[in-house]
Design goal:
Helix content: 25-40%
Order of helices and strands: HEEHHEHEHEHEEE
Strand content: 15-25%
Number of strands: 8
Number of helices: 6
Oligomer: single chain
Shape: globular
Distance between the termini: 38 Å
Structural class: alpha/beta
Amino acid sequence: MIDFIRAHTAIARPALVPEIALYLATEITPIWQATEAWLAETGIEPPFWAFAWPGGQALARTILDTPALVAGRRVLDFAAGCGIGAIAAALAGAVRVEAAEIDPLALAATRLNATLNGVMVETPEGDVVGSPCRWDLILAGDVCYEAPMTAHILPWLRRMAGDGAEVWIADPGRAYLPVAGMDLLSRHTVPTTRELEDRSERLVTIHRLRP
């Protein structure tokens, strides 16, 4: 997996968070085709981990600008993708950082990216949805893009909020973001690419989820 990631990405810095270096796809089509070929053989998910999505960038920017929000806390980067939120939390002084993903390639990419930035990020295997709360802060970026995904994760995230975790949802206008039970924390304009989005920038909102 490590060889695959290195062969299909290059070290780059996201536009909104240049402090963090990541192994990212520089052209969308080659890595997508390569992963689809592997998908047919191994069941690997599409390479969402190879891009710094707007929600993750907004979360990382918020954390690096205000490190007191995470310093000394136990943080989960949920559906972490490339791990940008987890890395930002570790850089800001979180006492423990976990990055959760069901895609083993995403976990491998997160470990590579954490090493690249000189931080420690734990990468538990499997789906953490349903786990008891062991975190003070849960970061969730770009997670409401499909109805089944939202229906799977939202009840658990609300339960985590009820069990004492602060839950942040960063969303760039996806269709299935819940409109109730959230408090707006901040807004961010994030540059993006038309290879991934239908515009050159996205307005990302970060909300705190209520139980």
